[in-house]
Amino acid sequence: MRRLLALIGSLTPLVLGLAAHAAPYCIVTAHRVVLGNSQIRREWVRQGDSWVTSSLARGDGSQAMALSPTDEFVVKLLEGPTVSGSECQWSPPAKSIEHSEAGLTFRTDHAGSGLSILVRYWLRGDDPWMRKSLAISGPPDMVVDEVEVDRLRTSRPATRGGYGQPIFLDEAWYLGLEYPAGYNDLLETAEARLLVLHHYPGRPIGEGLNTKTAVIGVAPRGLSRELAFSDYLDTVRIHTRSFLQYNSWYDLQGAELSPDNVLAAYRQFKQHLLEPYGLRMDAFVPDDGWQDPNSIWTPRKDLYPGEFAPLARALEAEGSRLGLWMPLNGFNLNPDWGHQQGYEVSDQGRYYCIVGPRYNAEIRRVTEHRIREGNLAYYKHDFNQMRCTAPGHGHLPDQRHGHEASLDAEIGLLAWERQVNPDIFLNVTSNVWLSPWWLMHADSIWMCASDFGYEKTFPQLSPREWDMSYRDAHFFQVYRQQGNLVPLSALMTHGIIHGRHCRLGGDRETLREFSDMVVLYYARGVQLKELYITPAMMDEPRWQVLGEATRWAVDNAADLRHTAMVGGDPRRGEPYGYVHWNGDHGTVVLRNPAPFGQTIRVPFDQSVLYRGQQEREFAARVIYPYHEGMTTAWRSGEPHDWLVPACSVLLIEVRPGKANRIAPAVPSGDLVTEPARTLDARAEGSTIDLSFRLAAEKMARCDLYLVVRGPGQTDFTDVAVNGERPEPRTADGPGWRLHSFDLRDLAGQLVQVRATLPGVGDRPFSPASAHLQAFLVADRPVTEPLDISPGRTPLPVGQGFRRASVKLLDANLRRHATEHLTEADLAGIQAGKLRLEVFDVNGEPQYADKWVLLNGERVARVPANQGELSAWQEVFLDLSPSQLATLKRDNTVVLTNAGGDCYKFRGVALSLQKADGRWVATPLDEGTYSSVGAWQYAEGEVFRGDRSPEVRIRIP
Question: What's the pTM value of the predicted model, to 2 decimals?
């Protein structure tokens, strides 16, 4: 090592002189080689008969990182030796400098296997990254199992890495294979850390095999690794662009997908959205249902007797173009028919093998035909199950080689489609994974979650709020917890859903709820803007909301292209948001899911992608849900604390300049006066009395929220407002129930509320304690200052009002102690329920055979999570008479596992109904139990084999 460092040091003065020039260079001596430019350099030294990387450094030689010697590559043969760089005979290095590119090539030969491996490194101009690949030749029938394209051994810290993810090394470096299925691994050894970039070709050498390309880059001085990687990614990805489209899935399905219906839907969009707001629908997309399943993507003759040409020409005449949903592997076609025709069918599911020579040739022909016939502007390639282990399909019959071959076939098909139409927008959706290198082949990729979901861990009133929280809780995990580097703007997030086949906002959705969702959807920065809307379900106010917000999002697409998520976890009701910077243009969207105001800290530095100078003054202006300049200056480099009102979405524009001098609009006086409340806790029930006087003003909203939390089916049995029993909006989730009452008609009046909870024992799991909360959420009138309009923005649906909230009650209600059962009570039990909470329980067939055991007897299969897998859900299992007969004073509950499912459970309890009809519940078990220890969500005690530890439940 000492000799190695001395060699590096002796070369430094020469490198420093060359690094002053931007042009790339390559220096070759008998014992040392350097490849670099003004930004980056890599050095090699001769070690015996081979060469090894000795250091990485910035282009000027600073921050040099010495590396321990290791093999420069490893090639593993399926039936043959493993060939490493140190076992090969290396020819003298050859350099090449042509125009703005410098390259370095080593030829290596391995006598034992007959392999010849050409190792090539290159870089261009003053790019702060360089690349490496291997070209393998040898006996044509020799099969390459695995290739380690690059290897670095270092004691410096390294993070990230994994399947399709880059490695971050030390303070400034990133590296990985430019391949979605590349394995970029961090291997800990006794002496140092080994970084290995490898993949699994699984194919014969034939006339030659080229490996995937490795890249290694350095963050320019003063730039974070995240921003540096983003800059690199922008140079290799498909050019990003705003793309507005309609998708038929939640509007027209099956036989509804006739050309007449599609055109009628388009004309309604044209009349109500496109023409009034100067928009263009980039593609109009029939989703699943247009195809004849006994074909390879031929349209149904009863719907499209002339195929797609007539519809495509009609859309073009109206100002749009056709797009299509079409899984490349034939998912939702009939593979039984296809097998009879000789097409290769995967053995891993009901779809075709896209590697199979006959099917691959046919899908190429079909995609070209569909593109040319329909002048397609867009493809949605759904259901990308790239799995096949069947023999005779042109790949090795195993999982890892079949998968890589399938991915290569899919990448080849995407390239083919872009060759047929270079302008086509390619959206690759379900079953892909969040690797940034997917964007080298597709315009957008799946967000890796369901089309939609209802996240209800934290109490929220409306389905739209649950849906916003579902998507943002997923992004919190992807970006805030995992730090994924796929730009959010490149994700397909399943768009704005308001269709006849999915009324996602529910039957009582307000305009403000719809508007908040639309603005947040666009303000996340998505470049693929999808409308899953039935036009006939839209009224004029909703068209206006959609039109103004879409126009704003299209106009500001460049400003929204780079996104950073900030704030907390929506599952916990914490405020969060998204920050975008494009030069000096900042855009911030914030959301508070809670029924009370909360403050969020918004950074103003590189962590939110700001690249400008520090200590500059910026002005902020709210542009949704109202227009208002802010009196507080934002200073670059310093975080800004922002109070977000209850249940709100705020959209903020940040530009250089002085803060606004006009005082913000505020409501006059207090929302409530004379507040009072009482709790009457008795053994037979619990009553809440609230009394307060509302401000005498015309409010756009004034909702009373009553929230009760507790295990089991806790709810109010009766709520009266001023002696009346109004119909509330209700919502429920795991361990909570919410009632909301519109009090606008009671403005200026004394409001008296009485709410009653069931008594302990009236219902299963009626808790001995409950958490009770009451809030007012109101939109109060204000006088807006003059000259407030900032130009074209989303519709300011809250103009003339400001949201306010008041907490009226926040108390824990504790009632009498748990009732004890006599032996006679226990013998006369009439019914029983077992309660538990589950997290990430997978219900797919390979995982389904796992059981809940009570005293060793099967009660039921472990209930699968519904909707969001990675969330706690409360479930109840009814006990049969035979299961009740097994009950003792002391009982055990055990859960089993199947298929290696990763899940956990907690909160086990029993509730038993005595002969007199009253229910008695055991305390909740306080433990948490995880089926697998090496799992990102694991906590508490871990299963032993396929069984959980015994959970002991004692009946009082």
Answer: 0.92
